[in-house]
Write a structure and sequence with these properties.
By secondary structure, the chain is an all-alpha fold. The protein has one domain (3-45, 57-167). The chain has helices at residues 3-15, 22-44, 69-79, 85-94, 104-119, 130-140, 160-167. The radius of gyration is 16 Å and the shape is globular.
Amino acid sequence: MEDTDLFWIAGLLHGRMPLLSPLVREAVDLALIDIAWKAFNRDAGPGDTGQLFSGWQNADHVLLTEDPRAGAVLTWLSSRDGPLRAAARRVHRARGGGGLRFSADERDMLIHAIQASREAKVKLTGSPPVGNLFKVIATLKEDARFASGPPGRSGVVGGTWAINLALLQKS
């Protein structure tokens, strides 16, 4: 099963959260945080973890990664009003609360992506909002910072990571 499938399954569960027990809600939120990190890591490319990096096998697990950008992703998710705020804070505390922060340009990209997703009225409930996502991409494609090739198959790191994080914000 692909991470995308897991994301939509977890998203569908998230939409039914009032019907689930508190423990199941926490587990779904923590799984979504890990999936969000995997998507960021895929779209933003491998991080520069220095010579002490013990291996790539843990890079896609938010609790195990040595990539300092995990702190930036978790800080962003825990500081914004969205469905994963509490879970991001919990994971960030479990990691020790450290790591990098997004640069001013990266924060600007995130805000631009959030605005585009709100204008297109994208909501991640039910089935994938393909039509509305096309509106977001059409809005952002004029910005050179968002240009990139297919995720994981291009040497150019674009703004796909920012779009994915923006979609996790409260609409």
